[in-house]
Amino acid sequence: MSPRMQIIKEENTLTLVGDFHEEGMPLSEAKEYFLNWMESYPQAVDDNYSFYFEDKAGNKTELKLQ
User: Fold this and answer.
1) Can you give the pTM of this predicted structure?
2) Local structure of residue 42 (DSSP, 8 states)
3) Among 8, 25, 38, 43, which one has the highest count of C-beta atoms within 10 angstroms of its own C-beta?
């Protein structure tokens, strides 16, 4: 079963927030999720956006998508 996830868009920031298992979701999976989302919604972002992964504890990690 996949963890529940959502993408929050605020100004020039996109944050992937999830309800993850104890070990957490690997950042490679979060990055893949973002890339798939961006393919589906290319009009939603531009080059000025920052991307973050946030775990259940509220810790944010910036993702570099290139």
Assistant:
1) 0.60
2) G
3) 25
Q: What is the pLDDT of residue 37?
A: 82
- Residue 36's CB is within 10 A of a number of other CB atoms, namely 10
Distances from the Cα of 7 to the Cα of 4, 30, 53, angstroms: 11, 11, 9
Beta-sheet strand order (sheet of 4-10): 4-10, 13-19, 50-54, 60-63
Predicted confidence (pLDDT) per residue in 9-42, tens digit: 888 888 877 765 556 666 677 778 778 888 898 8
Domain boundaries, the chain: 4-63
Query: Do the Cβ atoms of 62 and 52 come closer than 8 Å?
Result: yes
